[in-house]
């Protein structure tokens, strides 16, 4: 689903949203209440420019509209793989975006991520995975790394990783696997406006991803390890 169709489905219109290149932002209303939308489209690679633009939109909302909910619309192929962005410090720009989202959460803004198309790698980690909750549409594509790339990094054979991915969601792409791991809270279907309304109403104020992963059987040890670390003297 393209962003205009999604906006019309969720808000009745795409008015209030502006598109500059691949950067999407603006103010919409849900049930008469204002909502800030920040996101990307066109499978955007997140470079320094895009990361800083998103961070600025989040920080402006914190400064001008205390407590207003923020919806992150996610469609990204991951971080921009370009020498210029590396030299400009893409790692710091993306960290700045993540910290801006975290600050919004700490200041009382409900921050919701929605993967409506594609979510890959660092572009997803520093947006939807830092929100209070991240949901997805059924047709969305989510992964951090393809198995061939994972093989090059881990030095493990592709056949082994492919076999592992059949039984362990950690090694496998796909919306269902991210739901099992707790990275995606739920998949929207049917009335998308009602799904958004519910998602904002019950957005958690504490990070439940590890607990959800344990309960769903897709990430079995993270919550226990975290609890043991916190209990350690």
Overview of the molecule:
With 233 residues, the protein is α/β, with parallel strands linked by helices. It has a single domain, classed as 2-enoyl-CoA Hydratase, Chain A, domain 1, CATH 3.90.226. It contains eleven helices and eight strands. Strands 1, 2, 3, 4, 5, 6, 7 and 8 form an eight-stranded mixed β-sheet that branches. The chain starts with a helix and ends with a helix. The mean pLDDT is 91.
Give the N-terminus to C-terminus distance in angstroms.
50 Å
Q: SSE order, as H and E? A: HEEEEHEHHEHEEHHHHHH
Low-confidence stretches: none
Radius of gyration: 18 Å
* CATH evolutionary superfamily: 2-enoyl-CoA Hydratase, Chain A, domain 1
Write the layout of secondary structure elements.
Elements: H1 3-11, E1 17-20, E2 23-30, E3 33-40, E4 44-46, H2 48-64, E5 70-79, H3 83-88, H4 90-106, E6 111-120, H5 121-125, E7 133-136, E8 141-143, H6 147-154, H7 158-167, H8 175-181, H9 192-201, H10 209-216, H11 222-231
Parallel strand pairs: 3-5, 4-5, 5-6, 6-7, 6-8
Antiparallel strand pairs: 1-2, 2-3
Helix pairs in contact: 2-4
């Amino acid at each position: 689903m393209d962003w205009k169709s999604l906006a019309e489905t969720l808000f009745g219109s795409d008015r209030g949203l502006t598109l500059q290149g691949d950067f999407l932002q603006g103010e919409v209303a849900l049930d008469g209440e204002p909502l800030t939308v920040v996101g990307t489209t066109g499978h955007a690679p997140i470079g320094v420019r895009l990361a800083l633009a998103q961070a600025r939109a989040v920080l402006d909302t914190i400064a001008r509209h205390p407590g207003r909910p923020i919806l992150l619309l996610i469609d990204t192929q991951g971080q921009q793989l370009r020498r210029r962005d590396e030299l400009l410090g893409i790692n710091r720009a993306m960290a700045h975006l993540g910290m801006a989202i975290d600050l919004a959460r700490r200041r009382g803004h409900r921050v919701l991520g929605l993967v409506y198309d594609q979510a890959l790698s660092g572009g997803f980690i520093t947006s939807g995975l830092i929100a209070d909750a991240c949901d997805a549409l059924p047709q969305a594509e989510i992964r951090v790394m393809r198995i061939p790339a994972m093989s090059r990094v881990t030095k493990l054979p592709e056949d082994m990783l492919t076999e592992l991915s059949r039984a362990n969601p950690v090694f496998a792409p796909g919306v269902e696997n991210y739901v099992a791991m707790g990275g995606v809270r739920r998949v929207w279907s049917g009335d998308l406006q009602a799904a958004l309304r519910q998602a904002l109403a019950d957005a958690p104020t504490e990070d439940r991803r590890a607990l959800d992963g344990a309960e769903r059987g897709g990430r079995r040890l993270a919550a226990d390890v975290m609890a043991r670390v916190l209990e350690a003297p």
